[in-house]
Amino acid sequence: MTGEPRTAVVIVTHNTRDDVLRCLDSLGARGDRPADHRPDQPPDEIVVVDTGSTDGTVDAVLAARPDVRVLELANAGFGRGANAGVRVTSASCVIVANADVRFEPGSVARLADELDDDPTLAAVGPAVVYPDGEPQASARRLPDLQTAIGHAVCGRVAPSNRWTRRYRELEHTPSLPRDADWLSGCALALRRGAFDEVGGFDPGYHLYVEDVDLGVRLRAAGWRLRYQPAAGVEHRVGASTSTARWRSLVSHARGLDRFVWRQRSGPVSAGLRLVLRVGLVVWVVVTWLWERTLGAVHSTTGERRAGER
């Protein structure tokens, strides 16, 4: 490979050995060839960030893909892992991805093209689908309080309710590009300059909500976020959290608590914060009991999880 790297992919993984190998297969192998930006060309840099896996992920990646750089970290969360991976790359477009995604051919180049074509964009998200081809809600507006509460209360028992439809932006045509308030971190193309400007992902989020927080901070800095369905990925959802369900629910609740209060201006009463925290505790317990009784059918973000319908 000659010239400056244009595209990098950073894959953050935790105990998802088979998933990360399949993700790497979908990216192809890097080769020593000119950086001519062909649509089918693999990314110039690929980094796997392993956050304390115990399933042999690191050895498997090193054996299968000597062209890939591997970082080994403690299980410090998605945001910290992604930040570390981005730091060891030098490409202008860095795509941060979960291990349980598969990239459609040409998607890496298409995401980079979108950033190159519009200097006001900080991030671009692809179309995201389940393995059966059904679209996932991956580009969203920030919900108002009524929408958030309605989705949290009714999303599981009546998934077609108006609040959940509004939260997931189901009224939008998945095949049309549009701007968004935030984009799913399962596969997110980032302009390095914009990402560095806002300090990357907030490491205070262990898992979940860090992508929402990043979108808010990028837009506050004057950047735009764009959904571009000409690029696509398949996402299994929840591969790394399905065996640690209680911890993932608690982590999501903590992330929501952090996000809500970091967005507020002015003093916040102790009573109001207590009400929110009690509500989040109830949500965690009810969701966990519901799934233990009836079977887990969604991720903590409301999407179907790996292997479920």
Question: What general outline do the C-alpha atoms trace?
Answer: globular
CATH architecture title of the largest domain: Alpha-Beta Complex
* The top level CATH class name of the largest domain: Alpha Beta
Strand content: 15-25%
Largest sheet: 9 strands, mixed
Distance between the termini: 43 Å
How would you describe what is shown here?
The chain has two domains: 7-142 and 172-235, Alpha-Beta Complex (Spore Coat Polysaccharide Biosynthesis Protein SpsA, Chain A); 245-294. 38% of the residues lie in helices and 19% in strands. It contains ten helices and eleven strands. β1, α1 and β2 form a beta-alpha-beta unit. α1 (17-27) packs parallel to α2 and α9 packs antiparallel against α10. It is globular.
Features:
alpha/beta; 11 strands; disordered C terminus; Spore Coat Polysaccharide Biosynthesis Protein SpsA, Chain A; 309 residues; 2 domains; 10 helices
TL;DR?
It contains ten helices and eleven strands.
Helices and strands in order:
Layout: E1 7-13, H1 17-27, E2 45-51, H2 57-64, E3 69-73, H3 78-87, E4 93-98, E5 101-103, H4 107-117, E6 121-129, E7 139-140, H5 145-154, H6 162-167, E8 178-179, E9 182-183, E10 187-191, H7 192-197, H8 210-220, E11 224-235, H9 245-263, H10 270-294
Parallel strand pairs: 1-2, 1-4, 2-3, 6-11
Antiparallel strand pairs: 4-10, 5-11, 6-10, 7-9, 8-11
Helix pairs in contact: 1-2, 9-10
